[in-house]
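A brief tutorial aside. Many learners find it easier to grasp structure tokens once they have seen a single protein encoded end to end. The record that follows does exactly this for Putative transposase. Read the sequence first, then the structure, and try to relate runs of similar tokens to stretches of the chain.
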Amino acid sequence: MVKPSQRREMAQHAVASRPMSVRLACVAFSISETCYRYQGKFNDENSYIANLLIDLTEEQSDWGFGLCFSYLRNVKGHSWNHKRVYRIYCELALNLRIRPRRRLNRNIPEPLKEPTRPNQVWSIDFMHDQLVDGRKYRLFNVIDDFKREGLAMEAGFSLPSLRVIRTLEQLLEWREKPLIIRCDNGPEFISHDFVNWAKHHNIRIDYIQPGNPQQNAYIERYNRTARYGWVSKHLFETLEEVENYATKWLWFYNHERPHTGNGGKPPLIAA
């Protein structure tokens, strides 16, 4: 199926290269004379939108159209219609290629309770990766479930329960303590030190059921965002490089990266 815009271009080429009238060319290519003489009003602006989309998808290769449009609308303040931006997005063939997965029959998990205010529920979890020389390191992540705000991203070769407690203590120096901390059954989280620390601060620990990471879905989704956003995209030589990049990315995640759970706005911009 040839688009009218393409038929217009072929008609204009035929008139320019052959002794053919405009009327005959329009009949031959099944377009009206109005379509033949149409001049686009937003060609320059469309080119500007296309350049923005290309730069954005090159920098954030894991973003689809939804995040790109939310970034342009809610972070950069552009008021373009989503249909117009999506048309340009498709013409540039920037769509993410998603490989279909084989579906497994699973039991329906119990839905997570949506927090109603900040510092009601914090979720914590670990991530793993390695440096260029093969040494493995870990990332201890903490988020506030209310607006999916990233609170901490601690890097280290070893992160025992005492390091976990130290990171949480640093958070409590500038932030109100949570009512609940949700985590898995890792050895750092079931240790006596961590349990006694939570009791001392009157914080309830909600352990998920073993083998059910969907019960800690907020932090698991956050880990996936960090994994595809920067952890798997860059090679680091030292742990200091990891820490510095984690700090920069955490600021970007909270202030500029659109989040679909917040209506397409970053956690600290969402109302």
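Self-check: The chain has eleven helices and five strands. If you spotted this yourself, you are ready for the next section.
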